[in-house]
Amino acid sequence: MKPALAMRNGLKASVPIMIGYLPLAMTFGIAGAAAGLLPWQVLAISGLVFAGASQFLLLASIQSGIGWSWVVMLCALLNLRHLLYGPLLSRMLPPRLRTRMLLAFGLSDEVFSIALNRLPSVGAERGAWMAGLGGGAWIAWVGGTALGAFAGTRFTSAFPFLVQVLAFALPALFLTLAIKSTNRASRLPASASALTAGGLTLSRHGSLGILAGAAVGCLCYFLLHRKRKDGR
């Protein structure tokens, strides 16, 4: 497969991410403008940081006057999960450090989810495919930010229901990717995780539900994997 074709296929694979990112990035653009930032400043944050949770934390920090050292530390903590993403994908990517560093910039939760499931079947041009996947996500994020920063308030004033729709965009994207990534081996762990997280969330312990759901899902997967291994 030629690099150009692989990159185009990666871009096609990013379409579900792009659909989910546009409304969320638009929300960030609106929030950035409401915080008093100029449109180019909001765009610069999205273009250079490209990390949804960290960007919203940055806006909250600007509004509350938190020192930059604390902001950097909190953003680093929020993105520690990438230390787990990297080793899982690195074995499937080109060995050149510069290439890996460039691809790492485009890595997000959703990009990781699709890449982990699709990269093994891509072939030789995995770096180009990954560049297309991450590049498509980045373009959608920056484009949505621009739309929100320049015209977001006009949309929400004309269509108030968009506020609720935009807020649901990211959970809907995560749910779609989780369903697409589920296979026979992960079906039971995913169900156990969802039931645990859902039960605790309904009892008004949402933060605990996220942690407990993740722990239960990992434990269930480990026990099933160990049982299958012992049964051989």
Give the N-to-C terminal Cα separation: 38 Å
Order of helices and strands: HHHHHHHHHHHH
Strand content: under 5%
**Strand pairing plus helix content: what structural class?**
mainly alpha
Largest sheet: none
Briefly characterize the structure:
By secondary structure, the chain is mostly helical. It has 12 helices and no strands.
Task: Outline the structure in words.
With 232 residues, the protein is mostly helical. The protein is 81% helix and 0% strand. The chain contains 12 helices and no strands. α3 packs antiparallel against α9 and α8 (109-118) runs parallel beside α10 (162-181). The longest helix is centred in the middle third of the chain and has 33 residues, at 126-158. The mean pLDDT is 83.
What descriptors fit this protein?
232 residues; mainly alpha; 12 helices; globular
Secondary structure topology:
Layout: H1 3-13, H2 15-34, H3 39-49, H4 52-64, H5 68-78, H6 82-90, H7 97-105, H8 109-118, H9 126-158, H10 162-181, H11 187-202, H12 206-231
